[in-house]
Batch of 2 targets.
Target 1
Amino acid sequence: MDLQGDLLKHPHDAYRHLRDTAPVQRIAGPTGEPAWLVTRYDDVRSALADPRLSLDKTNAAEGSYRGLSLPSALDANLLNMDPPDHTRIRRLAGRAFTPRRVDALRAPIRRTADELLDVLGTEGRTDLIAAYAAPMPITVICDLLGIPDGHRKDFRAWTDELIAPDPSRPQAAKQAIGAMLAFFTELIAHKRRHPAADLLSDLIEVRDGDGDRLGEDELTSLAFLILGAGYENTVQLIGNAVHTLLSHPEQLARLRADPSKLPEAAEELARHEGPALLAIRRFPTEDVRIGAVTIPAGETVLLSLSAANRDPARFPRPEQFDVDRDASGHLALGHGIHYCLGAPLARAEVEIALTALLDRFPILTLAEPEPRWRPSMRARGLLELPVEYKIAQPPA
């Protein structure tokens, strides 16, 4: 199967075909190495929680797809770890995303949303990704970590190079990785000298204190992961959600008529057009049978969250977006011990972003009929989202 072709251009059509004909299929991975792609809901959900499917790259067979190549100071993160290290670091990092801490962030998140919308004025046309969906989560996560304003645009550019590298600029991704490593190294050194009331200072205290500790590479990698995932996933969640709502005006009207539906609608939005086509690659520590296929130890397994979320065996009429659907059990944010650490914060940001946007602009429509999707297997998101907006209906 042509991963770079069908799956990049028409992923939902390709996944539907695979679910029906070859639910566990040998493919060429994102960088050309072989991998197994799993597309049915029951298989994907079971595999996400299977301890025999390791995230540790040392379990990869020679020549298998291993994912993004990073220096050790950025690679020692939760996306490459199994227990017990994964358990230890997740427990430490989880302090940042407790319900109490997320609740305390709701008012600052709403202020950020309102400030971004204020800039748009009362009517006009804008790219909602650049004006709203991107700056909102980068502001929130940088405030949480204690990252100065001046570095935020740089980080957005670096992340874009990693998520959707430009084939005409093969060195750009390596340069972005080097720039991020230098940035985090310098920032951590600064926070050691000048600790503040922020998450990064708290993590440094854990690193340098007694008891359950972080290694230096673990500290840098965790900061990198929290910032990267907290920004990238939420940009796509917000952007995809707004595009889906504006593409289904009858569903948007139902949501406007009853805003109490928004938390459940946000789950359906994540199911219908989530930010990740694939979960992080896995490596079987022994031969593993998935569906009708036995996958040899060490060969890369790619679990399609997007395909699973549109499996009719789990979600009736899966291609249909429905604000009244019970989308519980969707896999957009993962499942099992590797379930998205920042899910409570991401949910809060999406709900607040949509509430603020719909409250502000009773008239909000797509300005272009066909969206341009980012050509990436790492993040399902829009390159831009042109919209037209007004704060009120014109007088009769």
Target 2
Amino acid sequence: MSLAPRAVLVHRTTEYEELLARHGTAGQAGFFLSSRGRSLAGVAARHALARRTLAETAAAVPLSWRQARVERRDLDRFLFGPEDVVVVVGADGLVANTAKYLTGQPVVGVDPEPGRGLGVLVRHRAADTARLLAAAVSPDVLCDELTMVEAVADDTQVLRALNEIYLGAPGHQTARYRLGTTAPAHGGEGRREDAGGDTEEAQASSGVLVGTGTGSTGWLGSLWRDRGSGLTLPAPAAPGLVWFVREAWPSPATGTSLVEGTLGGNEQLRLVVESDRLVVFGDGVESDALELTWGQTVRVGLADLRLRLVI
């Protein structure tokens, strides 16, 4: 006997709730904000809108379906099932935070504050929920299948992300490592050709970013613009990635030749740790990171899984 579909509503704590948790009462929270030139009224209004949208979305779930809710900070402990339809009620970033824990479940993005964000991933209103849930379980459901990036460590740890993966030192301090690409290149100062013909360079930098076309609307896009890079950023559904090294430092032992590039197909970026500790995290969630130590290797490339975003 097959299980009924389950709608999993993903949301996050509002700024108003965080203020109350920190200051105890609305009056104390209001005093804190007023001392910084802000008003509690606007924060409370956004909280009310977010909670109203969440309630309206939940009410649209068919009575024959099962239903669950999960807060952003609990995503790494929540078990998603194959029959789930994931409904993200929040900003674009909340979809990215959720994507890394999914294995092909359809995702519906509901925007509680239309016009405040870009609406790249949360494209719908709460009033559309019933229609979208019915479409999500239809055999001919229409989805945008968005490319994801994946990091695999030599100890079998795996991490996926929708926007970008960061590899570097905790706190974004100087990271030391050897960086390799699958694209052949000529040797030079601080770099060598390995046995497989790939190029490798010893580097000291504030970290490496590897991201997707979806990530081009965020951190990756900011870095691309600031650098004035000549690389072409991929489209969100394109089978390609771009990578950038942040603030590579030249020295007799470290080079700055491999600082950006693209990856496609089976191409991978390979990083060998030469620091006591490096972290690998996705989409800005440093609390859920892979930890690597001296001598470990991590490879980053296209993930086999994609985010299925219901149109």
